[in-house]
From TrEMBL:
Cofactor(s), by name: Mg(2+)
A molecular function (GO) term: transferase activity
Species of the source: Lacisediminihabitans changchengi
EC number: 2.7.1.180
Official protein name in the record: FAD:protein FMN transferase
Enzyme class name: transferase
This protein's UniProt keywords: FAD, Flavoprotein, Magnesium, Metal-binding, Transferase
Catalytic activity: L-threonyl-[protein] + FAD = FMN-L-threonyl-[protein] + AMP + H(+)
Length: 242
């Protein structure tokens, strides 16, 4: 998926079979949905070699879910690139993280932290009482902007930004110094966190206000001019760090 995954499992031994099971959750989705792979089903659809109507049930199911999010966000989140190519990266990575978490739980691990390219899902709590999740500084990618404490029921946090991969998110608002260059969203599940981080990055301040009014989430944003803002819940999470 063009990124790196890591797992932290305190107080437990993780075997090769456990790692293989987690990796399999990502491999299965990448084989179907990755636009980095020429042989994936979604790449064939993008090239016009296969019609969406002829796609597998897995592709149609994820595409339908992405369309539901497009409707719910008023188009701030979309599975379509400006050129019309179907790009499901905005939801597939989160689905893979969720599925990998299921693999860990099924294998008896009740405390873990799964980090995939800065998108994080946790289960249980470490000995410190809360997972300490660093959010990278969008200006200096080698530095940490802040640390957020994650614990039940807040099990996930996702960050979407433009400083590392450039302007890869289609923005629905006019360009200005108040555009967000990075958005972090904490939620009870990784799919909500990941989708809404992308949607707020796209929709800007107006959609951030809509999102926080309609979903149970905590949000931290950084603007192009360097202004940082956060919801009360995110501020409390910062204050709760150990």
């Amino acid at each position: 998926m063009g990124t790196v995954a890591s797992i932290e499992v305190p107080g437990a031994s993780v075997g090769a079979g456990d790692v293989a099971a987690v990796r399999g959750a990502f491999d299965r989705l990448e084989e179907t949905f990755s636009l980095y792979r020429d042989d994936s089903e979604l790449s064939r659809i993008a090239r016009g070699e296969q019609l969406l109507t002829q796609s597998s049930p897995a592709v149609r199911s994820v595409y339908d879910r992405a369309l539901e999010w497009r409707s719910a966000t008023g188009g701030a989140f979309t599975p379509h690139r400006p050129d019309g190519v179907i790009d499901l990266d905005g939801i597939v990575k989160a689905i893979a993280i969720r599925d990998a978490g299921v693999e860990l739980i099924d294998r008896g691990f009740d405390r873990w932290c799964l980090n995939v390219g800065g998108d994080v899902q946790v289960a249980g709590t470490p000995d410190s009482g809360a997972w300490q999740i660093g959010i990278v500084d969008p200006v200096d990618r080698t530095s940490i902007l802040c640390v957020v404490a994650l614990s039940e029921p807040r099990r996930a946090i996702a960050t979407s930004g433009v400083m590392e991969r450039g302007e890869h998110v289609w923005r629905t608002q006019a360009d200005s110094d108040r555009d967000f260059v990075q958005v972090s969203v904490a939620a009870d599940d990784i799919i909500t966190a990941d989708v809404l981080a992308t949607a707020i990055l796209s929709g800007g301040e107006a959609f951030r206000d809509i999102a926080t009014a309609n979903w149970d989430i905590d949000v931290l944003t950084v603007t192009r001019s360097g202004e940082l803002s956060m919801t009360p819940g995110m501020r409390n999470a910062l204050a709760a760090r150990t």
